[in-house]
Amino acid sequence: MSLDTPTLYIVATMVAAMLGAMLLLFGKQENIRALKWWGSAYLLGAASVGIWTVTSGTLDEVLSLALNAVGFIACGMVWNASRVFHGRKPNLPGLVLGAIAWIAAAMTLAPPASMMRVTIGAGIVAFYAALTATELWTERRRPLQRRWPLIVVPVMHGFVLMLPILLGSLLDPHDGKFATSVWVTGFSVELVLYAIGTVFVIFILVSERAVIAHKNAASTDPLTGMFNRRGFAEASSRLIDREAHAGRPVTALIFDIDHFKSINDRFGHAAGDEVLKLFAVVVINTLRLSDLSGRVGGEEFAALLPCSLEDGVIAAERVRTAFANSGIEVETGPVDTTVSIGVAGGPAGTELEVLLAAADTALYQAKRTGRNRVEAAEELPLSLENQRRKKLGAQRQEPTGVVKLA
């Protein structure tokens, strides 16, 4: 069965234009800049290919070069869309570099060197496809086995575009059968598949971004930007498991801002919010990157450190001193702020609830003995319930008939 190549190009153009309009509309509704870039690129590319296909053979050399240049700009826009989506600035010189290179090459080459023009054009588009694949590759927010479509689609498109270069003389454009050859037909079909595949990739990215946003919203305190109680508990569980495998101890800290209700009553809730945000900044800047911290109550914060109790007390003292010296001023004057801190440490595998309970006891001791101080738990929590359950589960999975000698 033979397929009419111009018809396939028109179909590809219509599909690309429809998808471009959809992406542009969705981008405007959701205010996603990258989708606007992608949608505009599709519409621009569709217009270029459509006009070139319909008027093929009737355009003069200048207009033909201009249409091809517009198509290369559309390819550059697809690459820039992936940059914008991942929070990077558009590369405007790179956007037009392909078009400039094409015009320069076309004006330099003699008209009979049409195959060389095809080769250069394919190379430019393949280069933009490689840049897009690289941009997606470097964005490692998902495991590779789940991100493979994001890489495969532009790589396969670039490979198809490189076929004229790889096959060379097998695709002789001066051959009368070239326009109806299986290679040209396959390439036009690939354009349709690439247009659809790219939109599939785009919606994978958008869906992933939405999932991450909802997950962050569910685990983040909106005022301070730190973990909320749920997020802190989940992250701490992973940290405890990791340290337990390595046999290292962990230490929990509980912070309570002194006389916080009085601050709200005297200066207003806006000032109270500023104090909370200031304390969050102090904690984040004072603790290490490997330490976890979060807001677990109104004026109560917690942290989990992969270290010994002694090192945890030192870290708590740094936070206490930094906050006491930070100072905050409102319209009515300075606000004196201090924090009391309870610290509790335990051996590898100690449960978070046990650590927080012991640290909470130490915190109340700090409150009773004058506030603005650090107190360590007198007794280390010894509950290793999680590890006990794991060992019990492993014993239950042992095959019957096996006798363990004490």
Automatic annotation (TrEMBL):
<dbReference type="GO" id="GO:0005886">
    <property type="term" value="C:plasma membrane"/>
</dbReference>
<keyword id="KW-1133">Transmembrane helix</keyword>
<dbReference type="InterPro" id="IPR050469">
    <property type="entry name" value="Diguanylate_Cyclase"/>
</dbReference>
<dbReference type="GO" id="GO:0043709">
    <property type="term" value="P:cell adhesion involved in single-species biofilm formation"/>
</dbReference>
<dbReference type="InterPro" id="IPR000160">
    <property type="entry name" value="GGDEF_dom"/>
</dbReference>
<keyword id="KW-0812">Transmembrane</keyword>
<feature type="transmembrane region" description="Helical">
    <location>
        <begin position="37"/>
        <end position="56"/>
    </location>
</feature>
<dbReference type="GO" id="GO:1902201">
    <property type="term" value="P:negative regulation of bacterial-type flagellum-dependent cell motility"/>
</dbReference>
<dbReference type="InterPro" id="IPR043128">
    <property type="entry name" value="Rev_trsase/Diguanyl_cyclase"/>
</dbReference>
<feature type="domain" description="GGDEF">
    <location>
        <begin position="248"/>
        <end position="379"/>
    </location>
</feature>
<feature type="transmembrane region" description="Helical">
    <location>
        <begin position="116"/>
        <end position="138"/>
    </location>
</feature>
<feature type="transmembrane region" description="Helical">
    <location>
        <begin position="6"/>
        <end position="25"/>
    </location>
</feature>
<feature type="transmembrane region" description="Helical">
    <location>
        <begin position="183"/>
        <end position="206"/>
    </location>
</feature>
<dbReference type="GO" id="GO:0052621">
    <property type="term" value="F:diguanylate cyclase activity"/>
</dbReference>
<feature type="transmembrane region" description="Helical">
    <location>
        <begin position="62"/>
        <end position="80"/>
    </location>
</feature>
<protein>
    <recommendedName>
        <fullName>diguanylate cyclase</fullName>
        <ecNumber>2.7.7.65</ecNumber>
    </recommendedName>
</protein>
<feature type="region of interest" description="Disordered">
    <location>
        <begin position="387"/>
        <end position="406"/>
    </location>
</feature>
<dbReference type="Pfam" id="PF00990">
    <property type="entry name" value="GGDEF"/>
</dbReference>
<dbReference type="InterPro" id="IPR029787">
    <property type="entry name" value="Nucleotide_cyclase"/>
</dbReference>
<feature type="transmembrane region" description="Helical">
    <location>
        <begin position="150"/>
        <end position="171"/>
    </location>
</feature>
<keyword id="KW-0472">Membrane</keyword>
<feature type="transmembrane region" description="Helical">
    <location>
        <begin position="92"/>
        <end position="110"/>
    </location>
</feature>
